[in-house]
């Protein structure tokens, strides 16, 4: 099997743990329930219940909220799993051609010579972002930058 | 994070007050007083503002990286009379440990 195939398989396996199976079932149940309630309200609205018109459109929005959280959790799990996976999983032959980049004046933690603790902390944050190009700003471990 | 927290707190109070108006005033009016007007006005307004509440919770959760259970707990708290006020205090408590200074990552 190709390396990318194995990576996909590993991703799928991360989403098929007992906890995740329960999570998928729960999310699916919530989505189906929301849509069913929306359908029920649509029927009542058509029969002349004015109040039901609002709920007809509201329940699908609740379903969307569930889906958004579901997708977010899946992406978090995959990101965490890939970060923990051994680096040897990358086949040098399969690896895409490196992009040539030129690095200019990288901020580092050592650059925090300034007396301003806030500036020093900001420089540490920038250095961390530089060291972790895959990470998003919200992944920064220090609490004050979340 | 400050802005998102403030937005959440404002909408939590609005939804909480509207839910109390709905359950303590409008619903008794409908089922005991046979007057449907209160429910007809407050119910859709509360319903749509609850959607705004969900958006505020989602936005706040995205910034502070809450676990799913906490997101769902806070989201559902908005549907139970009085609980939204208690939850609002708890959310403020959860986030009071973090630095309240403007964040560099805040959009």
Write a structural description.
- The complex is a heterodimer of chains A (146) and B (107).
- Chain A is mostly helical.
- Helix content of chain A is 62%, strand content 0%.
- Chain A contains four helices and no strands.
- By secondary structure, chain B is an all-alpha fold.
- Chain B has four helices and no strands.
- The longest helix of chain B has 30 residues, at 2-31.
- Chain B starts with a helix and ends in a 12-residue tail after the last helix.
- Chains A and B meet through helix 3 and helix 4 of A and helix 2 and helix 3 of B.
Write the layout of secondary structure elements.
The complex is a heterodimer of chains A (146) and B (107).
Chain A: H1 3-14, H2 18-46, H3 51-84, H4 117-131
Helix pairs in contact in A: 2-3
Chain B: H1 2-31, H2 37-64, H3 68-77, H4 83-95
Helix pairs in contact in B: 1-2, 1-4
* Global outline of chain B: elongated
Rg result of chain A: 24 Å
Largest interface: A-B, 23 and 26 residues
Structural class of chain A: mainly alpha
| Measured distance between first and last alpha carbons of chain A | 40 Å
Structural class of chain B: mainly alpha
Count the domains of chain A.
Answer: 2
- Number of DSSP strands of chain B? 0
Could you provide a short overview of the structure?
The complex is a heterodimer of chains A (146) and B (107). Chain A has 4 helices and no strands. By secondary structure, chain A is mainly alpha-helical.
Observed structural traits:
heterodimer, A: 146 residues, mainly alpha, 2 domains, 0% strand, B: 107 residues
